[in-house]
Design a protein that fits this description.
By secondary structure, this protein is α+β, with helices and mostly antiparallel strands. The chain is globular. The chain starts with a helix and ends in a 16-residue tail after the last helix.
Length: 969
């Protein structure tokens, strides 16, 4: 009896002391659970549900488990969403996110012992913290009143609910136990994860009676389950891996339909409210029996996404009605067939719904009978409901109705070009190429009317233009405009219509020069944009930065006590981002070369920049701004920083080393590049300011010496090219024979080696030695470099320009993109240099034809420079302050050259049916950077050089005499 009584007593005492975990103990989170898996589908309506972001919630595929789960070796219990009013997890507060959430919450439970505590969790709102920051603390409460705090670090213990890769985990600190996706993560190729954290209990024999979860308001944990157990779930690595490393299974058809329907209707209502949905947008004349009717989502009733099913269902004659309205009666015109081209028109936030793509649909209506001149027509679209626009009317007059099928340079052809053309052609979506064989003649109409008489300035035949590479999707025809004299014109094709207006020389070319130069001003960092210099105003940016590299005005950053800060200004923003790099100086170098060839042409006051009126040509003032930051931040040993991050994405790129205050560390390329451009600037600036010229030249020499002293990386394919560029520019500026000696020796040893991706820079880097006026230059080397540029220019003319239907310098059989798909200066650079060297007209013509392509002589009948021409980019990837309206809406600043057309692997967005030279995504809120973005280096500098050269060519005394081949200057 005594032994039996002792055993019972021991059981009771053991229970009182806390039960040991022979099996997992699942902590019941029901008393503290405060969030559901799903939202009601309407973002930010204050009704809660996950993070109140609409269908961006935890309704996943594969779905989250319910009840007791064993996953990848971990045991836990997930609350049932059909119970407890749907509350299945504890979400804590972070910043302004869901202020009604608690900062901390405690859960109590019967005493239990265990060697480990496992937390199944993820986190939200972590942008206020950096990886490694402590942003939550869990407190373990023991039965004896003692506690232990568990600090949790962002990205280590607490990992965001949105994630990228299965294998990105923290081991025992955060191991994936569920991976899935929702409708939004699929847009971004992301996943949603639940993570298991293992905590080793330092007091395994002390009963645990409660847990407190606390957010530090910099990124909040969401706790889904807690398990206390003696078992080490990490003991078997093979079990841990489980199915984590497998790909997500395909989502069943219709799985998200109910979720998406709720948001689809809400997005449509928001799109209507914000003016993104209006109905019929335009009617374009394609041929006298072919109309292009463009409608927005008012027809498909879906504002986000292509809605292919509804768009295809509308592609039939009964959807459209074309009425000819006479004085006495209306006559319906019979439609023979309907074609379609659906495309992304705009992307961005629609009300509270983030990052959606709005599709427009152009329907091609082929009429049984051609339009009659003087007839009044109305085109209606069935299925568009009031108050949306369901019809548009027009009067057909072939003299005055414009058609995009007649492609012209929509701004101005060069008056000095010996070759200029207009083109006729169109691709009508799934109807294919439009046949214009019936259009045989054209007229060019002088838009200066004399006593009410319209003057015909030129007539000619419209002739076929071969498309040997079959990249336009058109049956291209051409019109020769070469004999036009300076003036303002449009092309008229009898029985069809007229083109956009255009100039030949004069104000249009001058405006191209001004606006492409002013693109630099609008990208200045640390400089206010203000009237009277621009209508796109903003205060000076990125002036003050902390030692850590964070900007002082960053609301998400908490500086260390007494953290140092510094003030910077200078350089250019990189594209739609804000970081600055020395490689932007290549654009400055191109501009300086154009100036160097025509120094008398470019004047103070040309560009309306803050320095205008100081007696110095504005083009040189802009170059001074470009170089100033780097000169001022030069280290005592001569090192030039590669740039500054301004807290942009480049700050996180391991390939770019950054140091204190977010300054990128110097490397040989940054120093050689700076030295070359600074030397050229000093030489050209000296007549206007010897002090700045001397200081800049001395700085260039120090930068060069620093770079030469650095150990050469055998993997650096471009070291010799950069070295030769800098050495020749310094020799030209100083006459110091040591630079010439180094150039000759290095050239003999390595030649002008450049990485393939920098091949376009070859003519730029060869230029200083070719143009060097110092007596010690090697005539044989100069002649060889000169011949290389001329040969490259000849290749452009014979293999590219004259081989393409639209005569430009690209090669549509290769990958287009990142600046080489818009024609323009990218391909014109080498042609301009050949023209400067030889004076031969064919090279100026080739450069001008590239400008024509860039400005509208292309299959799209659009320009690739913002604000220029009748059909410029509508939604380029610019900073928001360069748009007229918030949310990147409305018109844009002028003069920014975008990347343009793309093809090949980088153009997977395009169906194979879309012709290569019609592949352009005019989207400005991410996802289409290869088309709609730009950079200072790849597009702005090339355009500035091209249009400065064309402008100068029209002024008296514009170009210096060419240097004879093989002779010293």
């Amino acid at each position: 009896m005594i032994g039996r009584r002792s055993a019972v007593t021991g059981i009771i005492l053991g229970w009182l002391a806390g039960s040991a975990c022979a099996a997992p103990h699942y902590v019941d989170l029901t008393p503290v659970a405060n969030t559901s898996r799903e939202d009601d589908g309407i973002a930010h309506n204050g009704k809660g549900g996950w993070t109140d972001e609409g269908i961006n919630d935890m309704f996943l595929f594969p779905p989250l488990p319910v009840g007791e789960v064993e996953r990848n070796g971990y045991h836990f219990r997930m609350l049932d969403p059909t119970q407890n009013e749907g509350r299945v997890a504890l979400m804590l507060r972070v910043g302004a996110h869901d202020k009604d959430r608690p900062l901390s919450r405690r859960v109590d439970f019967p005493a239990v012992k265990g060697r480990f505590v496992y937390f199944i969790q993820n986190s939200i709102g972590g942008s206020q913290a950096r990886k490694g920051d402590t942003n939550a603390i869990y407190t373990v409460h023991y039965a004896d009143g003692q506690t232990v705090a568990i600090p949790l670090q962002k990205g280590i213990h607490l990992r965001d609910w949105w994630c990228k890769n299965w294998w990105d985990n923290s081991g025992a600190d955060a191991w994936p136990v569920h991976m899935g996706g929702n409708l939004y993560t699929r847009k971004w190729n992301c996943l949603i994860g639940l993570w298991a954290m293992q905590w080793r209990n330092p007091r395994p024999d002390a009963p645990i009676v409660g847990l407190t979860f606390a957010s530090l308001d910099k990124g909040a944990p969401v706790i889904w389950a807690v398990t206390i157990d003696d078992a080490d779930y990490r003991a078997d690595e093979a079990v841990n891996k489980g199915n984590v490393w497998q790909r997500l299974p395909a989502t069943p058809d219709g799985y998200f339909d109910a979720k998406s329907a709720v948001e689809r209707d809400a997005i449509y209502a928001a799109a209507v409210a914000t003016g993104l949905v209006q109905g019929v947008r335009s009617i374009d004349l394609i041929r006298s029996d072919l109309l292009a009717v463009t409608v927005d989502p008012a027809l498909t009733r879906t504002a986000a996404g292509p809605c292919e099913t509804a768009a295809a269902a509308a592609q039939q004659p009964k959807t459209f009605m074309v009425i000819k309205c006479d004085h006495s009666f209306d006559e319906e015109q019979r439609l023979e067939e309907v074609g379609r081209d659906s495309y992304e028109y705009w992307n961005g936030d629609i009300g509270p719904f983030q990052q959606n793509v709005v599709y427009w649909h152009t329907y091609y209506l082929r009429l049984a009978q051609p339009l009659r001149v003087g007839g009044r027509y109305t085109v209606g679209v069935a299925g568009i409901k009031p108050p949306m626009v369901d019809h548009l009317s027009f009067i057909y007059d072939d003299h005055n109705m414009e058609t995009p099928a007649i492609k012209v340079n929509q701004v101005a052809y060069s008056a000095k070009a010996g070759r200029r053309y207009a083109y006729l052609g169109w691709w009508a979506g799934d109807l294919g190429a439009v046949d214009y064989a019936a259009c045989t003649n054209f007229e060019v109409i002088n838009e200066v009317i004399d006593k009410g008489v319209r003057k015909v300035a030129l007539t000619g035949a419209i002739v076929p233009r071969p498309d040997p590479q079959n990249v336009t999707g058109e049956m291209v025809r051409e019109m020769d405009l070469s004999n036009l004299t300076p003036g303002h014109y449009h092309v008229y094709v009898p029985g069809l219509g007229r083109s956009a207006s255009f100039g030949v020389g004069g104000d249009g070319v001058a405006d191209l020069y001004r606006q492409t130069q002013r693109a630099f001003y609008h990208q200045r960092c640390g400089c206010p944009l203000a009237k009277p210099f621009t209508m796109f105003e903003k205060p000076a940016c990125h002036l003050h930065v902390y030692l850590s590299g964070h900007m002082v005005d960053d609301p998400h950053y908490t500086p260390a006590p007494g953290e140092l800060q510094h003030e910077y200004r200078g350089g250019y923003h990189d594209a739609g981002d804000f970081d600055c790099f020395t490689y932007h100086l290549r654009a400055t170098a191109q501009n300086l070369d154009a100036y160097d060839m025509s120094p008398r042409i470019f004047r103070d006051g040309d560009l309306n920049v803050p320095e205008s009126g100081n007696g110095i040509p504005d083009l040189l003032d802009e170059a001074a701004w470009a170089l100033g930051f780097y000169r001022e931040q030069q280290a005592p040993d001569g090192g030039i920083p590669k740039g500054r991050c301004n807290d942009q994405d480049s700050r996180h790129q391991s390939a770019v080393k950054w140091g204190d205050f977010g300054i990128f560390k110097p490397d040989p390329d940054s120093n050689f590049e700076y030295a070359a451009v600074a030397a050229s600037f000093a030489r050209l600036y000296r007549p206007y300011g010897a002090a700045l010229a001397d200081a800049t030249l001395a700085s260039a020499v120090r930068a060069f010496d620093w770079a030469v002293a650095q150990r050469a990386d055998p993997k650096d394919d471009s070291r010799s090219g950069f070295t030769l560029w800098a050495a020749s520019a310094l020799y030209r500026a100083t006459g110091d024979e040591r630079f010439n000696k180094l150039f000759v020796e290095r050239y003999a040893h390595d030649g002008f080696r450049l990485h393939w991706s920098m091949g376009v820079c070859g003519p730029l880097m060869r230029w200083p030695y070719i143009r060097c006026e110092q007596p010690g230059t090697d005539a044989a080397i100069r002649a060889k470099l000169r011949a290389e540029i001329v040969r490259s220019a000849d290749d452009q003319l014979t293999k590219r320009i004259d081989a393409e239907a639209y005569r430009w310098g690209g090669d549509a059989k290769r990958d287009l993109g990142w600046g080489n798909g818009n024609g323009g200066g990218h391909h014109a650079d080498v042609l301009l240099r050949a023209w400067w060297l030889t004076g031969e007209q064919k090279y100026l013509d080739g450069a001008s034809l590239n400008a024509d392509f860039q400005l509208g002589c292309n299959p799209l009948s659009k320009t690739f420079i913002t604000g220029m021409g009748e059909r410029p980019p509508l939604h380029p990837e610019l900073a928001e302050f360069l748009y007229e309206q918030p949310g990147k809406r409305g018109g844009t600043v002028k003069g920014i050259t975008v990347y343009g057309l793309s093809s090949g692997a980088i153009a997977d967005w395009y169906p194979k049916e879309r012709p290569v030279l019609r592949r352009w995504r005019d989207l400005g809120n991410g996802g289409a950077e290869v088309n709609s973005e730009f950079t200072v280096t790849e597009t702005l500098g090339a355009s500035a050089m091209l249009y400065a050269a064309l402008y100068a060519s029209e002024q008296n005394g514009a170009v210096v005499a060419p240097v004879p081949e093989g002779k010293k200057p």
